[in-house]
């Protein structure tokens, strides 16, 4: 019950931090359009998208850092974090992410002229402003990647309260800052400069929070280059998803800018920005359930199933009525908010995207479960299959139907993606009825949810010496077909994973070991 309340509280914090920017956007976008004009506002929407897409340069290390640090917190000795090797891991990851961000900044700076003058149909009078704006976006890339790592540390520490406050402030300023800059100077480059300054504020705020809430993790400023390979291997599949998924999310606006005009981008991106704010519900819930899934899949698979079904039920219960309202009142709502011109061009886009967002929101549950089960490769492989089919589809539909065609292609993609994710999550979900403390049954289910995917190698290597897997225990975690027939179907307990590699019934109680319950022979 206490754990459920904590999950609900953290989800509410996440929801508030994501909903606040949506409310500010509803107020700020109309005056932004009037002040900047459709063309400049279309470029600003591209700038918002590009800054979000710059997170790909962290190469999956932010998510990997969250998982590894949270596991390190659970496995550390009472003597503290400093002796666990986590500070070295954290500093190595942060330095890597900063370096990758600087490399991305140089690449983006070198290509900004090509993007402004050739890739997009930017009016000649706005090309110089656009180049200067892209340079400010390039300057923000290292800040974006560093922020992803710092946020990962706070999420691993379950510090959702202060994390959500900073996230809400960042989201609010993302819309309020450009509105203020547009009113003061009217220059597009000054407007985009405010976005870069906001990212600087966010990175500084997260760094202060990490120093206050997790000082032990920042105590040893030591970079261990031996950590680079394991970190990249761990985040490899996440990197693939980070590269492909944002591309599929944003490629429609790029292609509209290439094949149609930046004004058409504004007509498409404005309802898109509105309707995709509904994703705050699944984002808030999935962000909290991700670590909960990871724990439940090891300790209580029945609870993992309950969390999965309840999370899906909550998402559908909240989004179904909201989607219906958006579909029915799309045109009058846009007309009241932005005027009849925007409404006539964008209401069908809003209707289509509302349905697609609801489908995509439901798919966040199986995706979160698969990641928590150590299977980010599933989503990455699906994205690799979908991308080469999605790009030709969206290009063709833009030519045939205009911006409505881009919306149709997006809905088709998220529907196929959701169906495949639900299917794969159904195969990976452990069978019901397992007892408390089971990691996985080493029978046929092991082919669906490998034990060694639940116990990442780096977490094992970072455990204190008396908790690390000995060679017999490592051998016992090899694929199921190598197990002797007499062991198939035998559940693996937590104390077998962290013990000496012997059968749990033969492991002596070690009252002197931290966390060992000598009376029950169980590691807590």
Give structural notes:
A hairpin with a 4-residue loop joins β3 (516-517) and β4. The protein has three domains: 1-234, no CATH class; 237-429, no CATH class; 438-523, no CATH class. α1 runs antiparallel to α4 (127-156) and α1 (2-53) crosses α8 (236-259). The model is unreliable at 75-81 and 434-524 (pLDDT under 50). It is built from 20 helices and four strands. The protein starts with a helix and ends with a strand. The strands form two sheets. It has a two-stranded antiparallel ribbon. Strands 3-4 form a two-stranded antiparallel ribbon. The relative contact order is 0.10. By secondary structure, the chain is an all-alpha fold. The protein has helices at 2-53, 61-75, 86-119, 127-156, 160-184, 188-213, 228-234, 236-259, 262-275, 280-299, 301-328, 330-338, 340-362, 364-372, 376-401, 403-428, 451-454, 457-462, 471-476, 494-498; strands at residues 438-441, 491-493, 516-517, 522-523.
Provide a brief overview of the structure:
The chain is mostly helical and 524 residues long. 74% of the residues lie in helices and 2% in strands. The protein folds into 3 domains: 1-234, no CATH class; 237-429, no CATH class; 438-523, no CATH class.
Question: How are the elements arranged and paired?
Answer:
Elements (H helix, E strand, L loop, with lengths): L1 H52 L7 H15 L10 H34 L7 H30 L3 H25 L3 H26 L14 H7 L1 H24 L2 H14 L4 H20 L1 H28 L1 H9 L1 H23 L1 H9 L3 H26 L1 H26 L9 E4 L9 H4 L2 H6 L8 H6 L14 E3 H5 L17 E2 L4 E2 L1
Antiparallel strand pairs: 1-2, 3-4
Helix pairs in contact: 1-4, 1-5, 1-6, 1-8, 1-9, 1-10, 2-3, 2-4, 3-4, 4-6, 5-6, 8-9, 8-15, 8-16, 9-13, 10-11, 10-14, 11-13, 12-13, 13-16, 14-15, 14-16, 15-16
């Amino acid at each position: 019950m206490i754990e459920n309340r904590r999950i609900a509280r953290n989800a509410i914090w996440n929801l508030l931090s994501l909903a606040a920017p949506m409310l500010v956007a509803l107020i700020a976008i109309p005056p932004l359009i009037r002040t900047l004009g459709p063309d400049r506002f279309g470029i600003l929407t591209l700038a918002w998208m590009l800054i979000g897409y710059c997170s790909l340069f962290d190469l999956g290390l932010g998510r990997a850092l969250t998982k590894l640090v949270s596991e390190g917190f659970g496995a550390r000795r009472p003597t503290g974090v400093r002796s666990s090797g986590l500070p070295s891991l954290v500093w190595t990851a942060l330095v890597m992410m900063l370096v990758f961000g600087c490399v991305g900044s140089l690449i983006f700076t070198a290509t900004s002229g090509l993007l402004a003058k050739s890739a997009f149909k930017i009016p000649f009078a706005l090309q110089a402003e656009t180049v200067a704006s892209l340079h400010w976006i390039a300057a923000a890339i290292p800040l974006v990647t560093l922020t992803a790592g710092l946020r990962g540390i706070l999420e691993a520490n379950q510090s959702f309260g202060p994390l959500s406050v900073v996230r809400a402030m960042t989201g609010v300023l993302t819309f309020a800052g450009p509105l203020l800059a547009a009113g003061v100077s009217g220059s597009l480059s000054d407007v985009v400069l405010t976005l870069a300054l906001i990212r600087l504020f966010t990175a500084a705020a997260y760094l202060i929070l990490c120093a206050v809430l997790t000082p032990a993790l920042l105590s040893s400023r030591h970079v261990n280059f031996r950590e680079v390979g394991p970190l990249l291997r761990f985040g490899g599949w996440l990197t693939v998803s980070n590269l492909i998924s944002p591309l599929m999310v944003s490629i429609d606006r790029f292609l509209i800018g290439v094949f149609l005009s930046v004004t058409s981008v504004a007509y498409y991106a404005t309802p898109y920005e509105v309707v995709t704010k509904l994703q705050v519900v699944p984002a808030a819930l999935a962000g909290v359930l991700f670590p909960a899934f990871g724990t439940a899949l090891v300790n209580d698979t029945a609870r993992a199933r309950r969390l999965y079904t309840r999370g899906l039920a909550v998402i559908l219960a909240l989004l179904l009525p909201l989607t219906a309202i958006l579909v029915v009142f799309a045109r009058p709502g846009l007309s009241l908010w932005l005027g009849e011109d925007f409404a006539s061009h964008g209401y069908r886009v809003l209707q289509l995207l509302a349905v697609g967002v609801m489908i995509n929101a439901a798919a966040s549950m199986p995706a979160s479960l698969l990641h928590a089960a150590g299977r980010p490769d599933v989503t990455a492989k699906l994205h690799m299959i979908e991308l080469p089919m999605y790009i030709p589809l969206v290009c063709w539909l833009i030519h045939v139907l205009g911006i409505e065609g881009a919306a149709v292609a997006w809905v088709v993609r998220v529907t196929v993606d959701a169906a495949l994710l639900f299917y794969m999550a159904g195969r990976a979900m452990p069978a019901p009825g397992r007892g408390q403390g089971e990691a996985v049954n080493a029978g046929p289910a092991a082919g669906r949810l490998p034990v060694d995917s639940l116990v990442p190698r780096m977490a094992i290597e970072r455990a204190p010496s008396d908790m690390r897997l000995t060679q017999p225990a490592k051998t016992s975690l090899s694929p199921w077909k190598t197990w002797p027939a007499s062991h198939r179907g035998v559940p693996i307990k937590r104390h077998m994973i962290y013990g000496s590699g012997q059968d749990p019934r033969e492991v002596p109680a070690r009252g002197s070991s931290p966390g060992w319950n000598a009376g029950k022979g169980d590691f807590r």
